[in-house]
Design a protein that fits this description.
The chain is of the alpha/beta class. It has 2 domains: 186 residues, 2-Layer Sandwich (Nucleotidyltransferase, domain 5); 188 residues, Nucleotidyltransferase, domain 5 (2-Layer Sandwich), CATH 3.30.420.40. The chain is built from 14 helices and 13 strands. The strands form 3 sheets. It has a 6-stranded mixed β-sheet.
Length: 391
């Protein structure tokens, strides 16, 4: 498609960048792609400073943002990511000139998959910032970013996007696999044993770490509940569980569906916290109940929308939630007798599946390949995703 710094027909070295709904930092993965193989050569996660994280979270909330702050944050994030890319390359002993391409998901500040009245028509939209043109100029490497828009323009929800990577990587194993990613939001992808892309199903399930992280910050001052240790000390509250379930209409919504901080952000958590206060629950009780609720929504979505159509042989968990042993135990109980394992057993580091995935999506774009999965997003047709930004 373009020749700048790209070795078409050979293996490419692509950096994948992922900053998720938790806004806690940037994941970077260096991926070698070519000859039908995908190999992660190195991966690192870089935390934002406390002041950076709080500012980002504030500015992506409606009541704290305006046109100016979104514009400023668009450039600010690109600058922060450029600094982290340079740090990553220095720490892993790679040079900018050796990297062919960067795939950057961007930071979602608004995702509205369902149409609402706007001016004179119903409208859907999505916005990811951390401008890829700015990033490309700062690191002097071509960048592909802004992946969601093309799928949404083709009638899809613009999410989830990782199913293309899931199909490309996991179909080789010849098993019916349920791939669960637990980031800020949880999502699932079904990959069929015959490798048929048309059979791929994927959608968001509900809260991943988002509600648990807010609870950990509120009750303990920690950014997250490491390994679910606080949750383990608590007791499950049936009353709180049913309160959350009654409030959360997203769980029962039929696919295609996608969501984010717009649904499970601070307003949602404040309602949970207020109810917990009325029930005289401890912070540990709230975290225990939220951990179960997170596992429940994943299994419930599988049970309602996949189980009758496809017999799953294994469930593979990726994302930060894979490191929460308490949450993993609940998932194993709910999916029993289907084995539940971490995605790392298949050669993908738990925390970096999405970063690797966006490296693969960028490579597909630069190769002229459509990489949305209409059966997952609801798009009317395959679409070439992202914008190519040259330095």
């Amino acid at each position: 498609m373009i020749g700048y710094k790209l070795r078409n027909g050979q293996k490419r070295l692509v950096l994948g960048l992922m900053s998720g709904t938790s806004c806690d930092g940037l994941d970077i993965a260096l991926v070698e792609i070519g000859s039908g193989a995908i190999k992660c050569l190195s991966a690192k996660s870089y935390d934002y400073s406390p002041i950076q994280k709080q500012a980002i979270l504030n500015y992506i909330q409606l009541n704290h943002s305006n046109v100016k702050t979104v514009s400023q944050l668009n450039f600010y994030l690109a600058q922060i990511w450029a600094e982290l890319v340079q740090r990553f390359l220095k720490e892993t002993a790679w040079q900018n000139k050796e990297i062919d391409l960067i795939g950057s998901h961007g930071q979602t500040v608004w995702h509205q998959p369902l149409a609402e009245p706007f001016i004179d028509r119903p409208l859907r939209s999505t916005l990811q910032i951390g401008d890829p043109s700015v990033l490309a100029q700062l690191v002097q490497i071509p960048v592909v970013g802004d992946f969601r828009v093309a799928d949404m323009a083709a009638g899809g929800q613009g999410a989830p996007l990782i199913p293309y990577f899931d199909w490309l990587y996991f179909s080789r194993y010849g098993q019916n696999l349920l791939l669960v990613n637990i980031g800020g939001i949880s999502n699932i992808t079904f990959v069929a044993d015959d490798g048929d892309l048309q059979k791929v199903l994927a959608f968001d399930c509900g809260p991943g770490n988002m509600l648990m992280d807010q609870a950990a910050q509120h009750y303990s001052g920690q950014p997250f509940d490491a390994d679910g240790r606080m949750a383990k000390r608590g007791t499950f509250s049936k009353a709180l569980f049913h309160f959350i379930l009654a409030r959360d209409s997203f769980v029962d919504l039929e696919p295609p569906k996608s969501t984010g901080r717009e649904w499970y952000g601070s307003d949602f958590f404040r309602a949970v916290q207020k109810k917990a206060l009325g029930l005289k629950l401890s912070g540990a009780d709230v975290l225990h109940t939220l951990a179960y609720y997170t596992a429940y929504t994943i299994h419930e979505n599988y049970r309602h929308f996949l189980a009758e159509k496809h017999a799953v042989q294994k469930v593979l968990i990726g994302g930060g939630g894979a490191r929460n042993g308490f949450l993993m135990n609940y998932l194993k109980q709910l999916f029993n007798p289907v084995p539940v394992e971490r995605v790392s057993t298949y050669g993908i580091e738990d925390d970096f599946k999405e970063a690797i995935g966006f490296a693969v999506l960028a490579d597909a774009t630069i190769s002229g390949k459509a990489s949305n999965v209409p059966s997952a997003t609801g798009a009317s047709r395959p679409a070439l995703l992202g914008k190519i930004c040259l330095p």
